[in-house]
Amino acid sequence: MIGAAQLTDDIVADAINGSASAAATIATTLEPQVRLMVTARLSSTPDRFNAIDDIVQLVMMGLGGNITRITIPTVGGLKAYVSRIVSNKVADHIRRPPAETARTGVRSLDSAIDAFSNAGPIAQFLSDGGTSPLSAIARRDEFNRIMHELGQLRKPERELITLAFFDQLSTAQIAEIHGITRPAASMRLIRAIETLRRNVTGSSQIHHPHDETN
């Protein structure tokens, strides 16, 4: 996750045990990543990008109000917990009819683009040539292209990539979520990434994602 290196298992444990300062540190650190996680899940319904801010706020409120309920007091446990909250809040939103009058959502999307360009491995892994563009226009074009192609993938492929790169879950965690073995999860993820990179860049060559143990 963006800024996840700033978090430690001790900080997560302190937050679970009721430390307000630890909870605040987690909220500040994770908010940009949560914005990306929401955007990735809305990629198949880009007409709903206007709701990014609202969903992010609901996620952060849900995390703040329930952080003591996290059962695994580690950074990995935190990631998995946040992933579930984001998935539920986005699913709730998509089930509702679109608002008759929607805001433009430009600010929401711009902040997601900023988070994506600062995401290091996520942006570099999915971008052509393994590097992120420097100009704001190039970053926007890259982000829009990746979000568009992500949204075009079949739902299982889109979910795998979202969990691995936007939620930053380990292969073991992804396997548990999908009820499959770790090797099966790894193989499905590699195939999904190959498809996405081929659609975005015309090349299926990939760098293997970092497989965290948390």
Explain this structure.
With 214 residues, the chain is mostly helical. It has helices spanning 9-16, 20-41, 52-66, 75-95, 106-117, 121-126, 136-152, 155-166, 171-178, 182-201. The chain has one domain (4-201). 38% of the residues are buried. It is 66% helix and 0% strand.
Relevant terms:
214 residues, 0% strand, mainly alpha, 66% helix, disordered C terminus, 10 helices
Protein topology:
Elements: H1 9-16, H2 20-41, H3 52-66, H4 75-95, H5 106-117, H6 121-126, H7 136-152, H8 155-166, H9 171-178, H10 182-201
Helix pairs in contact: 1-2, 2-3, 2-4, 2-5, 2-8, 3-4, 5-7, 8-10, 9-10
Whole-number tally of structural domains? 1
- Strand content bin: under 5%
Helix vs. strand class: mainly alpha
Terminal CA distance = 12 Å
The low-confidence runs, each spanning 5 or more residues with pLDDT under 50, are: 207-214
**H/E element sequence:** HHHHHHHHHH
Based on CA inertia axes, which overall geometry fits? globular
What is the typical, i.e. mean, pLDDT? 84
Computed CA radius of gyration, to the nearest angstrom: 17 Å
Helical content class: 55-70%
Largest sheet: none
Number of helices: 10
**How many β-strand stretches?**
0
